[in-house]
Structure formats: C-alpha cells, structure tokens
Amino acid sequence: MISKLNLENILFLDIETVPEVQYFSELDETKQALWEHKSQYQRKDDETPEDFYQRAGIWAEFGKIICISVGYFTFKGDLRNFRVTSFFGNEVKILKDFKNLLISHFSDTKHLLCAHNGKEFDFPYIARRMIIHHIELPYKLNLFGKKPWEVPHLDTLDLWKFGDYKTYTSLKLLTNVLGIPSPKDDIDGSEVYRVYYEENDIDRIINYCEKDTIAVAQIFLRLRGDDILTEDEIIHI
Hints:
Blueprint: E1 10-19, H1 29-38, H2 49-52, E2 63-76, E3 79-88, H3 91-105, E4 112-115, H4 122-132, E5 153-155, H5 156-161, H6 171-177, H7 192-197, H8 202-224, E6 234-236
Parallel strand pairs: 1-4, 3-6, 4-5
Antiparallel strand pairs: 1-2, 2-3
GO molecular function, one term: exonuclease activity
Domain Predicted 3'-5' exonuclease PolB-like: 62-224
Protein name: 3'-5' exonuclease
C-alpha cells in the first residue's frame, strides 16, 4: 500500500527535546512535587527526582522542543531530491514556524506526516506543547474526533512492526539491519541535554536531528522497495 503513496505528499520529521529548565532546583515546589510523582516508577531505588531530572525532556509536561527538522521529496523528471531544513530557537517560534509550514504546504487531505515512533512521541509531543503555549492545533495534528483511518500520520516504527506490538526497534538499529549507511554520529539522544545546556551548541543538535529525519526517509524508501537516497540527492536548506 505504501508503494502507491506519492512521496512528494509526505513530510518527514524528527524532534529534539530537553527538560524545560536546566536544573531541577529551578522548578517551583509544585512542579518539583509533580515531577517526583511522575517519575517515581521510572527511577531506580537509589535515584532521587533531581538525579533523574535530565531525562525530563521525554515528557511534554516537563520538557520543551529545541529543534524540529523536516524533509520532503521533490522530483523533476528523473531527478530526485530530498530537501531538509530545521526550525530552532525559542520554542514558541519553532512551533509557529512548523505550523505555518503545515498550513502553507502540507494541509491538503493527500498530505501525510511521517516520523519514527511519531505516533507515540513526536506528533503528540508537538501537539501538547502547542496547547501549552496557546497555539491552535493545525489540522494535521488535531486528532479530536478523527477515526483511526482518518489520522494523517505514518510511523516507520509502526510499519516495521507488521502488527507485532510487543517490541521497540530503534531508528539506529533499523537503519543497520536494512543496510542504510549511517555516518558516525557526533552525538546521540542521551547527550542532547548536555550539548544544549552545558555546551550551548545548537548546531550539533540540528545536525543530529537532520540526520534522523533523513534516516526516517531512507527507511520509508526501503519499506517501499525503492532505492535509498545518495548523498548528492540530499539538499540542506
């Protein structure tokens, strides 16, 4: 079925998130107590809420988005390109710029969003942060009242499961088993907190986020049986 989809109608994406503030001590007492309760089942017995706080970015209620990278295919005759760009900076600006992209270029019924584990993480995280910031949800993220077959989202993890919901396959593992070249990453997800808050190096995070967006597109191509992208087909804008 996915082989019949027009690649030009799909927006591939990945997000990077961090805790909303650098240190647990910067949260007010109410938020500290809420974090302690929220994280109680994830923490090891000897871990305090403060010790565990660096992982707060995975929850939209305690984190924030620092980068959204997107990619889309363009075709001119036999020439195929994959264009990649990123939104970064202030979270409200990131969300509004991303929303504007959806409204202006990916708002038709034919358009779809695609991410790895997007249905469980990227899509709901973006939607929740928009609501927190009083940003009206664009149609592509507003799932209220939609039937499952009406949701305009693709998920490469979901596609790879083939109905087997007992397992999780990381983006890194999936690119490896599918034979997709993966350049040695400068950082990985566990280091984003440090690079953002301690090194203040957003460029490294953008590069990492864009690599993941490209990887999602490559996996989608392999699932369709198409040739994967070559370096000269990828354009950073």
